[in-house]
Amino acid sequence: xxxxxxxxxxxxxxxxxxxxxxxxxxxxxxxxxxxxxxxxxxxxxxxxxxxxxxxxxxxxxxxxxxxxxxxxxxxxxxxxxxxxxxxxxxxxxxxxxxxxxxxxxxxxxxxxxxxxxxxxxxxxxxxxxxxxxxxxxxxxxxxxxxxxxxxxxxxxxxxxxxxxxxxxxxxxxxxxxxxxxxxxxxxxxxxxxxxxxxxxxxxxxxxxxxxxxxxxxxxxxxxxxxxxxxxxxxxxxxxxxxxxxxxxxxxxxxxxxxxxxxxxxxxxxxxxxxxxxxxxxxxxxxxxxxxxxxxxxxxxxxxxxxxxxxxxxxxxxxxxxxxxxxxxxxxxxxxxxxxxxxxxxxxxxxxxxxxxxxxxxxxxxxxx
Length: 368
Fold this sequence. Notes:
By secondary structure, this protein is mainly alpha-helical.
């Protein structure tokens, strides 16, 4: 099997995910309360797939996982842009004489803003992912060191079942919804991330069987994924269905789509051709810069729209405001990623290359 250095189809999905989230925050009404917010859960499954895949690939190549190298590389991926955003927003609110409370700043700095309110609005999901990275950097190398790699599958299933049970028990014990008690804590979102790990495990260690199963069942898998996602068009964000069984339905639906897009574009020409169309490439381009776009989108998009309404068009149609919101966010995300994220990642890859990059470098050196 030839591993792809980047999954164009999954960059496309990341683009879809960030567009969904921007819709949730920039287009009030039905799309905000029903559909857009689920983009975060799509991100979680994708993150589980990509991040665990880094460790799985290393294990296949070296027979072990280097937790320290993995976590340091994640730090250089996540922290520079995050702390840039934190400093910019902190400076802005201080200049506006509305500085956040010190407890909010501490929550942001130490990545527990999914348990205590921060001030950056969207970083609760980043806290979940950082906590997730830390856990898998400890657990996966440990179980593979002791030759218990087969524990990954039952472990992920256990997390999925436990997370669902915790959501149901908690919601019916405390029916008054609060995002910091019902939605944002890691223990209520860990199943989405575990789903990504499970897909990644089969992709990396049972590829032929996984490929055959997805190819043979692609129609059924697509129909089931659509059925599982139908409830988001019916139930609102705050409905009890959503924060009990609904989240499970959402990540299952997105997991099915991810499995299809991991396998079929490589196996079937018509699927591959679609991801080379101008529309798909544009969305994949947005997906490539999705972290920067996501991190700044509320701060930048809302600010640009407010100033547009204040100085240009007070009663601008919602569609016009949303287009400005999207455009400002996408181009600012591209700008700040090019200025901060991409140069640091290039430096990281020189100073602390991944095992795959080291392998390529040694091969090129031998050829020279």
